[in-house]
Amino acid sequence: MYRDTLSLLGPALPVVSFLGRLPTAMCQLGSLLLVAETSGSLTTAGLAGGALAAGQTVAGPLVGRLADRRGQRPVVLAASLANAVAVTALVLAALDRAPTGLLMVLGALAGATVPQIGPLARTRSVQLARAGGADDRAVATVLSFEGTLDEISFVLGPALVGLAAAVAHPAAALLTAAALLASCGTAFALHPTARSVGVRKLTRSSAAERSRLPASTYALRVTMVLQGAMFGASQAGITALTERLGAPDQAGLVYAAMGVTSAAAGFAMAAVPDRIGLATRWRVSTAALVVLAAPLVLVEGLGWLYAGVVVLGVAYAPHLITVFGLTERTVPPARLAESMAFLTSGIVGGQALALAVSGRLADTHGAPAAFGVAAGAAVACAVLSWTVRVKAAPADEPVRPAVAAPSA
C-alpha cells in the first residue's frame, strides 16, 4: 500500500523528517517538567509552556510562508539551528533558576523558531507526488503516511520525555531535542528533495491570487483548532480522572494508548476506496468524533477510561488526514506550505487554550467537565463538516526550481 510512497520519497527522507519533527512533540511537555522541577512552581511552568505554545502558534504560518516564497532549504536550515539554540538556552536558564519573565521570553523564542518540519515534509511529499504525475489516490496515500508519522511522533515524544525525567532529568530530554533539531533538521533541509520543491515566481496576477483564499479554507483551519481543543480537553480529563482514581502515573499511558490507535487508523486510511470522496470522509470522521467522544463524560473507572480513549483515537487521525487533504485541494499551490503550517499551528493553539480552560473546569467540576469540552469541540467540528462546501483551488503559476545548492 505504501510501497509507491516509500519509492517516491526514498529511504532517508522519512527517517530524517520523523526525527526532525520529534522535538516538537518533546518540547511542550519537556519545558513544563523542566521548569516545574527547577522553579518548584507549576504556575511558572505553565507560563513558560504557554509562551512556547503561543510562539509556535503565531510564528508557524510565517515559517510556512517563507518556505513558499524562499524555498524550504534555507528556511528550514535557519529555523532548525535557531530552534536548537533557543531550546538549549531555555534549558540553561531553567537550570540557573532564571526569573519567570526570562523563561517566558525564551519559551516564546523556542516556539517561534520551530522549523515546522511536519507540515513542510507533508508539503514536500505532496509536491513530489504531483510533480511525478501521481493521481489523487496516490496523494491521499502520501498524506496518510505523513499523518501516521505525525501521530507516532506525538506518542513517542512525550514518552521519551517521561522516560528521561524518570531515569535522569527533564533537561536531558530537551537537550536531546536540541541535538535532533541541529542534526536531523539540518539533514531534512539539505536533503536533495528540498531543491525539488518549487518556488513560485509571483507575477501581479499570482500575487493577487495569493491574497484570496476560499472561505472553506478558514473553516478547515477552525476545525483544526477544534481538533486541538479535543486533544487538550482529553488530556485534562485523563489527568483529572487518573488522579481521582489514585493512579496519576497512568495518565501518560492512557494518552499514549489513544495515540497508538490513532496512528493505526491513519495508516489504514490509504485503503479507503476512491469512491468515498474527501467531503464524505470529513463528515463521517467528524460524526465519529461526536459519537466516540460523548461516552467519556460518563466514564468512572480506569478500565473504561482506557477503552473509551482507545476507541476515540480511531477517529482522530482520519479527521486530521482528511482536513490536510482538503486543504491541499483548496488552497493555491503557492500557499501550500503556509496553509499546512496554519493547520498544525491551529492544533497547537487549540490544545494549549483548551488545556488551560478544561484543566480549570476539571479542578472545580471533575473530569466529566473536561471531557464535555472535548465532546463540544467534536460537535462543532461536525457542524462545520456538514455546512461548509469545499471547492478545489484554480491552477497556479508554474514553479521554478529553488535556489541551487550542493546536494546533501
What can you see in these coordinates?
- The chain is mainly alpha-helical and 408 residues long.
- The protein has 2 domains: 12-199, MFS general substrate transporter like domains (Growth Hormone, Chain: A, Up-down Bundle); 214-392, MFS general substrate transporter like domains (Growth Hormone, Chain: A).
- Helix content is 78%, strand content 1%.
- It contains 15 helices and 2 strands.
- The protein has helices at residues 3-9, 12-39, 42-70, 72-95, 100-112, 117-131, 136-167, 170-190, 204-210, 215-244, 251-268, 278-293, 302-330, 336-365, 367-387; strands at residues 199-200, 399-400.
- Strands 1-2 form a two-stranded antiparallel sheet.
- α7 packs across α13 (302-330).
- The longest helix has 32 residues, at 136-167.
- It is globular, with a radius of gyration of 20 Å.
- It starts with a helix and ends in an 8-residue tail after the last strand.
Order of helices and strands: HHHHHHHHEHHHHHHHE
Number of domains: 2
- The coarse overall form would be globular
Strand content: under 5%
CATH architecture of the largest domain: Up-down Bundle
* CATH domain class name of the largest domain: Mainly Alpha
User: What name is given to the CATH topology of the largest domain?
Assistant: Growth Hormone, Chain: A
Q: What value does the Rg take, in angstroms? A: 20 Å
* Average pLDDT figure: 85
What characterizes the major β-sheet? 2 strands, antiparallel
Number of strands: 2
Give the CATH superfamily of the largest domain. MFS general substrate transporter like domains
